[in-house]
Amino acid sequence: MKVLAAALVSATLLASANATADTQFVALDNSPGTELCMAFASNKPLDMKRAIKQNRVKKYQIDDKLTCNDMSLAEFASVYGLNRTSNYMNLEISTSTSIKDLAMAKKELVYISGSK
Questions:
Q1: 82 with 44: CB under 8 angstroms?
Q2: Residue 3: what pLDDT?
Q3: Would you list the DSSP string of the chain?
Q4: Is the distance from CB of 68 to CB of 32 less than 8 angstroms?
Q5: What is d(CA 114, CA 36) in angstroms, rounded to the nearest whole number?
Q6: Contacts (Cβ under 8 Å, ≥6 apart) of 98
Q7: Of residues 25, 31, 27, 33, the one with CA closest to residue 114
Q8: Do residues 12 and 95 make contact, with C-beta atoms less than 8 angstroms apart?
Q9: Can you name the residues that pair with 27 across neighbouring β-strands?
């Protein structure tokens, strides 16, 4: 039973890692909101921490007010599998398990705009 649970956890992590690897994010403008969304979309907590510091905001302010592509951060993280930055931001994201044929996967280009 433990082996099955471990296999399920590793498959879920692999699927979420592939979801972000297949997606390329492009900023639409140079606004501070878009800069924060791009740092969030990088799925690298250190990049997010730097962007927060450079824009002189607090984590709790971002949770309440920042939207990326007209979605809350939790919803944005759930759609694109951004589990590392969502953990850094202490966001509760819903997880789902899906099977994706990696041979048929194509790169997805997503344009990001943040809240003003």
A1: no
A2: 41
A3: -HHHHHHHHHHHHHHHHHHHHTEEEEESS--HHHHHHHHHHTT-HHHHHHHHHHTT--HHHHHHH-EETTEEHHHHHHHHT-HHHHHHTT-----------TTT---EEEEE-B--
A4: no
A5: 7
A6: 15
A7: 33
A8: yes
A9: 112
Map tokens 């997606």 to a residue: 23
**12 — phi, psi (to 5°)?**
-65, -45
Tens digits of per-residue pLDDT, 34-74? 999 999 999 999 999 999 999 999 998 888 889 999 999 99
Q: Which of 85, 13, 14, 10 is nearest to 50 (CA)?
A: 85
* Reported pTM: 0.70
Contact 40, 48 (CB under 8 A): yes
Q: Cα(37)–Cα(34) distance, rounded to whole angstroms?
A: 5
